[in-house]
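Blinded run. Sample ID left blank on purpose so nobody reads anything into the name before looking at the predicted structure. Input follows.
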Amino acid sequence: MFDDPISSNDLIEAARNYAKAVALVENTAAAAREADITLAKADIAVVIAINNDWEANLDNEQSPPRREMGFGAEVNTHRDPDTLAAVARAAELAKLHYQQKRAVAMSTELAATSASQAADAAEKYLLATARTPSTGPADQPAEAPTATDQIEVTV
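Blinded prediction complete.
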């Protein structure tokens, strides 16, 4: 089988395709792991931003405006509406970044799955090529032994 240049070339080509497919699987799996790590970090950032927004709103709603004794004017506190808006915007931006990173993670996971399927197909092709007998002269079966050959072998 391996003496036939056609079958050995087919086998070598199948092996190369399989090696490429496996390398692609490894690369896309690494990219998917990195995307998952980035997504987890973004998830943490969203939770922190939402908690900050929640806390700022709770602080703002906690008690009615404070008035000093004898004065009708409200005492200025650190609950500036601009600060609340900035905290709310930061929370929304964190949510947006999370969703963007989630889309990247989903995309890389899909690419890793596709690459894995391609590697499986390349492996099956490689194995089928290795199992397929060649039709070259080196792979032709010898002629069936004759009765005389049988006698020579037994003697």
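Unblinding after everyone has recorded impressions. The longest helix spans residues 5-61.
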